Amino acid sequence: MSQECVFCKIIAGDIPATLLYEDEDVLAFNDISPQAPTHLLVIPRKHIAGPAALTDADQSLIGKLIKKGTELAAEVGLDDGYRLVMNNGEKAGQTVFHLHLHVLGGRVLTWPPG
Ligand code: 5GP
Ligand code: ZN
Prior knowledge:
This protein has helices at about 5-10, 60-75; strands at about 20, 25-30, 40-45, 80-85, 100-105. The chain has about 110 residues and is an alpha+beta fold.
């Protein structure tokens, strides 16, 4: 737990979020500023600053995060396509330094991303 981390505060229940899923390892909730009709975030309970901070010990956790993202995408009806995104570092647009997987869908998503 990081005192200043907004996602740790959501995990602790100190900041409200629309929870879609939670278990002993991961949580999923709606993004507060959706960039698509469906925009979910899947995060580990463990505070990890971002993709580059993952260790070998986190391999099953990151696998679970991605698997859960795909399961939630199916549950909310994103059958015809969605995007899983992890931003790493400020230059890539990372603003919250607690690992998170974006699940975006519900509209046509252009490529390459900006
Ligand atoms: P990043 O830019 O780091 O890849 O993604 C961070 C995401 O967290 C952004 O899409 C932003 O809208 C979302 N976010 C930031 N603060 C909050 C919050 O307090 N609650 C929720 N639900 N999402 C948040
Ligand atoms: Zn955190």
